[in-house]
Amino acid sequence: MIAIIDYDAGNIKSVEKALLYLGKEAVITRDTDTLLSAEKVILPGVGSFGDAMGNLERYGLIPVIKKIVENKTPFMGICLGLQLLFDSSEESPGVKGLGILPGKVLRFPQKDGFKVPQIGWNSLSFPKESRLFKGIPEGSFVYFVHSYFLDAGDKSDVAAQSDYIFKFDAAVEKDNVFACQFHPEKSSDVGLSILKNFTEI
């Protein structure tokens, strides 16, 4: 069973729908016992970094997430869920992230010809081999919606990069922790293949 963490951060049903399409059992929950007993856990989300961290704290989910990671359960962050895994975000100064991986989240600068947020399809490049992107060709397109991007503190964690204004870190993989800035559940066959790879880890 795959648990999807429910912390009022939107975009949860589309992740559940994609998993059900793949024939996987999925449950949306914030129940501690359910989350700790799940085979895999996904932290999706859209919205503000500060509000999301506030919700995680209010529901007592921060220690639960840290315990899931500590237990080596495969754990995946999606979009805002990726950003929350890191130390901080320019979106919410003074708010600490989960700090599970080192790095910070920065706002895209203004540049002629580029709109912020980035909304739409963009290609991936892979700086290392990873289980998450097994069988996914270099240059595959996925769907992004974001104004903020990850600058990973340890570049060996970076599993995929994309280019918008400049090259940025689009996905990470370290031990049992995986995360994508883009939305695999909205990225057609490529995205479903990435989710399938995660479910089979």
CATH architecture classification? 3-Layer(aba) Sandwich
Q: Find the CATH superfamily.
A: Class I glutamine amidotransferase (GATase) domain
Kindly provide the name of the CATH class. Alpha Beta
Strand content: 25-35%
Which geometry do the CA atoms define?
A: globular
**Low-pLDDT sequence parts:** none
Largest sheet: 7 strands, mixed
How does this model look, in words?
It is built from 6 helices and 12 strands. It is globular. The model has no long low-confidence stretch (mean pLDDT 97). With 201 residues, the chain is an alpha/beta fold.
Secondary structure blueprint with pairings:
Blueprint: E1 2-5, H1 12-21, E2 26-29, H2 32-37, E3 40-43, H3 49-58, H4 61-70, E4 75-78, H5 80-84, E5 88-89, E6 103-107, E7 118-123, E8 141-146, E9 148-152, E10 158-164, E11 166-174, E12 177-180, H6 188-199
Parallel strand pairs: 1-2, 1-3, 3-4, 4-12, 5-6
Antiparallel strand pairs: 6-9, 7-8, 10-11, 11-12
Which descriptors would you attach to this protein?
single chain, 201 residues, alpha/beta, Rossmann fold, seven-stranded mixed β-sheet, three-stranded mixed β-sheet, 6 helices
Quick structural gist:
With 201 residues, this protein is α/β, with parallel strands linked by helices.
